[in-house]
Design goal:
about 325 residues; Dihydrodipicolinate Reductase, domain 2; 2 domains; 8-stranded mixed beta sheet; 6-stranded parallel beta sheet
Amino acid sequence: MPDKIKWGMIGCGNVTEVKSGPAFNKVPNSALIAVTSRNIEKAVDYAKRHQVPKWYSSTEELLNDKEINAVYIATPPSSHEAYTLAALKAGKSVYVEKPMSVNAASAKNMMDAAQRYGGKLTVAHYRRAQPVFQKIKSLIDEKAIGDIKLVTLQYFQPPLSTEEMKEPKNQWRVDTSIAGGGLFNDISPHQLDLMNYFFGTAVIAMGTAAPQAGLFLADDTVAGILKFRNQVIFTGSWCFSTSEGYKKDQCEIVGSEGGLSFSVFGQPTIELTKNGLTETFSFDVLPHVQQPMIEATVNYFLNQKPNPCSAEIGFEVMTIMDEFTRFQSHIALEHR
């Protein structure tokens, strides 16, 4: 067992600039030592700007580097499965970006490969490691609002503008062949994984989706219902074609004695309402949002702590996403 995790990073996109990349050198017993990208100039530029000692022109070269014992896969979802399988086969531990892949079948292949090769695989559902969401978890567990009854989540945003669609980081997110399911597949894994973190395994999942705005092949409106093993019921709605003045990012947890309200992507603040009084918990904005999760992953890879987000959990989240979007009713009203 190594005493330090030495990372190789596949992909040098936007997510790696601040959210994740710098954190690999800021947590104990961890160092980012090599990067690769389909565009070698991009890999060289990233390595020089972030003081990464090595860069490679291919994934194969990076995986053949014996100094590297863990791989961070930071590419679009359509390549997650192939890179994960190759890294596990090469004997590397894997930290893969969310969504885990393009669908549940692909995620299962990754989960099965980890078992087959005896490797370690962690999914980057990093919000579950952040202090604000760990506080929500502790409030739920200590029954600060009594027994949990119902959870409602709403996420609305306007369509991507023409200018935004000129950026490569946005273009692939609405391409179903690369992202699997558009902006819903990009946004909802964070939210749905938090529900798994808070309430455990969902035993019922159903939903529907539609490309209402017709701007892309991907669905831009999704609604879903979950029932968890502990009888908590969740309802979620996502719309990526609302007006600029009606953005919303809100989750409410209703208990027998009160409620919790918070944003998943906004300011790290929790409002707890009980007996007509509201208490607010506020947290600092993290400079690198993935740092707590990367630290937990490093500890797992070093056999010091349990897996912070297993392949099994990633597969569950992908299954829920598939269930929410696979039933698209086309019932003509005149035939009812």
